[in-house]
Amino acid sequence: MTSAEFEFTGGATYGVMNATWPFAALRVNKNELELNISLLGNLHFRPEDVVSITKLGMSFFSSGIRIKHKVKGYYSTVIFKSFTNADSILQQIQQTGFLDNKVPLPHYDDTVITSMQEKGGFAMKIPAAIAIVVIWNLLFLPNFVHSFQNNKVPFIGMHLGLSFMLLLSLTLLISEPFRDLLLKEGRTLKHIKTFVLFMILISALILGISFLLPQF
Q1: Is the pTM of this model over 0.70?
Q2: Which UniProt keywords apply (predicted)?
């Protein structure tokens, strides 16, 4: 007897990129394995896409599983890390029936997974990501100018950059049209929500602290 679905929260390694807990979520049912790593990747696998899922020893505090796959366009290194014992994760994956499922997927499910795989793992549109990086660096220019001219504006670049990131994150959180503009088709708030909330918290916290510090 198989269970319908299970989900774990943890961390992940995708290619050379790493995400710590709680920025990754592993969801498995009979027809699909999904590893969501927020902005870094949203990976979808059919049973036929997965060559093997093996236990990976990590540390005393965490363990993990390695997903060996044959999806073109995905990095070969796909690892999910969790505080839950890897044997338990493997057992629950086995219980879903995913690993033993040889039945062709329903046409709609197969089409959706194929579409998501073709878009690649990264959640954001590449031009949007480039634009954000460029704007971020431009906003920090006053700090670089200060370092050469010794003008008394040490925090203005940081304030501008963090304010931009805070506004960007808040808008992503509340505006669906804005998310559609930045995210690839098929990506939704659930795929990036943990990261967005983290950026709001960190940006607001650092901004608040910086305003309390003396200006040099």
Answers
A1: yes
A2: Membrane, Transmembrane, Transmembrane helix
So what CATH class is 6-119?
mainly beta
Residue 208: count of CB within 10 angstroms of its CB: 10
- What are 80-98's pLDDT values in tens digits? 998 888 889 999 999 999 9
Per the structure block, which two tokens stand in for 109? 């499910």
pLDDT, tens digit, for every residue of 148-193? Answer: 556 555 567 788 889 999 999 999 999 999 999 999 888 889 889 9
Characterise 14 by phi-psi region: left (phi > 0), alpha (psi -120 to 50), beta (else): beta
Please write down the HEC assignment for all residues of 74-96: CCCCEEEEECCCHHHHHHHHHHH
Edge to edge, what strands does the sheet with 5-14 contain? 42-45, 33-36, 17-29, 5-14, 78-82, 63-69, 50-57
The alpha carbons of the chain give a radius of gyration, in whole angstroms, of 21
Q: How far apart are CA 135 and CA 84, in angstroms?
A: 40
